[in-house]
Design goal:
Elements (H helix, E strand, L loop, with lengths): L10 H15 L9 H12 L4 H11 L3 H8 L13 E6 L2 H19 L5 E2 L5 E6 L11 E3 L2 E3 L4 H13 L14 H8 L18 H10 L35 H4 L14
Parallel strand pairs: 1-3
Antiparallel strand pairs: 1-4, 2-3, 4-5
């Protein structure tokens, strides 16, 4: 049975989207290059990419719906079904996972009563596990509508989603004030971010990442022992009672007096 044509937007909505789309398309030498931001634009309208949205993109860019669908289904930032006002993503890649990301994700599933890519009954929160967001030095990381919440625990993550569902103000660890997923999608489409302080806000890198940057530039900072939950020691030298792989090697008997070890004798072989 052939699929019915996608319904169109109401006239006023279509006129507004067409004006916005022309603005986006004008930024590119080839109109089809505007497909990604246009998908964000239609997602900002309904909270996910609908058949109507894909048909709109295809028509205004002179593409087939198959070409638009291929792109919309490839990138995970485009939702194909209704989702929550707040996309809560828990990083479960290697470092975040071993630092507690897996535990956070499991506890949030139980706490919210949803599975991966599912939305709470009140339509507030969609939970998902996400790929690395290059914030490993703040692991484990939770993102809400792509804003960072660093150094999370199961308890802090549960408080976070409870606040979101209750409508309480939630401040990201880094970046601008949190906004809804539809508002985020419009910003990703390339329209001005009108949140107070958005221009000045920064998701700056942590100490561990900046050490790597200095090394890449040829600088040689003093060795430090870096805790994943802090920015490093206040001084340039690690505490004397906290040896690490960066310190000079020590004899086993010196580093662990309770278990001294010497050369292996013939009797022990």
């Amino acid at each position: 049975m052939p699929q019915l044509p996608a319904p169109d937007y109401p006239a006023d909505v279509r006129a507004r989207l067409e004006a916005d789309a022309r603005d986006v398309i004008a930024r590119y030498p080839d109109s089809r290059s505007a497909l990604l931001p246009l998908l964000h634009l239609v997602q900002a309208e309904e909270g996910h990419v609908t058949r109507t949205g894909m048909a709109f993109c295809a028509e205004i860019l002179g593409l087939t719906t198959a070409e638009v669908t291929a792109v919309a289904t490839f990138y995970t930032m485009y939702r194909r079904k209704p989702s929550g006002d707040y996309q809560v993503g828990v990083c479960t890649n290697t470092l975040c996972a071993v630092m507690g990301g897996d535990a956070i994700f499991d506890e949030l599933k139980e706490h919210l009563g949803v599975g991966n890519n599912e939305t709470t009954e009140d339509g507030k929160v969609t939970l998902e596990h996400i790929e690395c967001n290059a914030a490993c030095d703040f692991a484990p990381v939770v993102m809400v509508n792509w804003e960072f919440f660093d150094n999370q625990t199961p308890e802090s993550a549960k408080r976070l989603v409870d606040d979101l569902r209750a409508g309480r103000d939630v401040e990201p660890t880094r970046g601008a004030k949190l906004c809804t997923y539809k508002e985020t999608a419009r910003i990703l489409a390339g329209f001005p971010d009108e949140r107070p302080g958005a221009v000045e806000a920064s998701g700056g890198a942590g100490h561990a990442s900046l050490v790597g940057l200095r090394l890449a530039k040829g600088e040689k900072p003093p060795a430090k022992v870096v805790s994943p939950r802090s920015s490093g020691y206040a001084s340039d030298e690690p505490p004397a009672d906290h040896p690490s792989s960066h310190d000079a090697p020590q004899q086993t008997s010196a580093s662990d007096p309770a278990h001294p070890s010497g050369p292996v004798t013939e009797e022990e072989e």
